[in-house]
Design brief:
Blueprint: H1 6-20, H2 25-31, H3 34-39, H4 48-59, E1 68-69, H5 70-96, E2 104-105, H6 106-109, H7 115-120, H8 128-138, E3 145-146, H9 148-155, H10 163-174, H11 187-205, H12 215-222, H13 239-242, H14 246-261, E4 268-269, H15 271-276, H16 278-281, H17 287-291
Antiparallel strand pairs: 1-4, 2-3
InterPro entries: EF-hand-dom_pair, EF_Hand_1_Ca_BS, EF_hand_dom
Coiled coil: 11-45
Domain EF-hand: 97-119, 126-161
Length: 301
């Protein structure tokens, strides 16, 4: 679940690094700052009221009008999510980069595949050829290795803006929808599978007075060549609904947060509304988790 408060993310990272033994006590001490002392009471409970008051002007950015709009909240949540994805990617690259040259090769990340496996190029799910196709999709400069941006694309294909990666994701997603196995979706297959998934997310995004497009209308709009079938590339406009990645979930979750806290239903949040619904913004964070010494240990820090 997306995390609203970057301070919570910092605490979780510190805990994981300490558990993994990658963060020494001395290094942890260097990371300590007044923010921990300021926003945690002596009983080690996060002061969410103070945190929301601190974060509100950061969210109220465009325009600065004393309110947080849905767009501003989405921008904030998606930025927190992207930062967290890049952080995890950097950690994974550091772990898997055996020769410490700052990039990842196919052999470094997937050493279980032999040279013969790679030459066979089997494209079944999880086979060497299946992985290699996505590796090549992510290797934007075609140099045979992935830097951190390319590796992030490889690890999070659902969030990729790369056309080849998006088509790869959609082909995978279509496997369970294409019941007759012809590599495309006829109208019945679309309605039974793809449209139902799209509708659930689209209903959540739409305003109360907006209607979700009918399956007939949506199918016709995406069927660019008017052959009465949809191929993977034609499904790209609804990729975020069929195979939502972390960025899409952050966007959907922002809509949920706004809906829950918007008391007067004006489509934006005041500071008072956010303070009245602190539990909504911090519901993914259990206080008992933050109370745990693994998260915030004054003695060790």
């Amino acid at each position: 679940m997306p995390v609203f408060d970057p301070l919570v993310t910092r605490i979780e990272r510190l805990s994981h690094e300490k558990e993994a033994g990658t963060k020494t006590v001395e290094a942890a001490k260097e990371e300590k700052d007044d923010m921990f002392e300021e926003y945690f009471a002596q009983e080690r409970r996060l002061n969410t009221t103070m945190r929301i008051k601190f974060l509100f002007p950061l969210l109220d950015a465009s325009p600065r009008d004393g309110f947080v709009s849905l767009k501003e909240l989405q921008t904030w949540m998606m930025q927190q999510t992207e930062d967290n994805m890049v952080y995890r990617t950097a950690k994974e690259l550091e772990l898997q980069d055996k020769d410490k040259d700052g990039v990842i090769t196919f052999e470094e990340y997937l050493p279980q595949f032999s040279k013969q496996d790679i030459e066979k190029n089997e494209k079944g799910h999880g086979e060497a050829g299946w992985w290699m196709e996505q590796f090549k999709n992510s290797d934007f400069d075609h140099n045979g290795s992935l830097d951190i941006e390319e590796f992030n694309n490889f690890l999070h294909p659902e969030d990729s803006r790369n056309g080849d990666t998006q088509r790869w994701v959609l082909k995978e997603r279509m496997t369970g929808m294409d019941t007759n196995g012809d590599g495309k979706l006829e109208y019945k297959e679309f309605v039974k599978n793809a449209y139902e998934m799209y509708k659930e997310f689209a209903k959540f995004e739409k305003e109360e007075d907006e209607n979700v497009p009918t399956p007939q209308l949506l199918f016709a709009e995406m069927d660019r060549d008017k052959d009465r079938f949809l191929v993977a590339d034609e499904l790209r406009p609804i990729l975020q609904y069929l195979q939502p990645g972390e960025m899409s979930y952050a966007k959907f979750y922002s809509t949920f947060l706004c809906h829950e806290a918007d008391e007067d239903k004006d489509g934006k949040l005041s500071l008072e509304e956010m303070l009245h619904h602190e539990d909504v913004f911090y519901k993914a964070v259990h206080h008992e988790d933050l109370d745990d010494e693994d998260y915030f240990d004054h003695d060790e820090l």
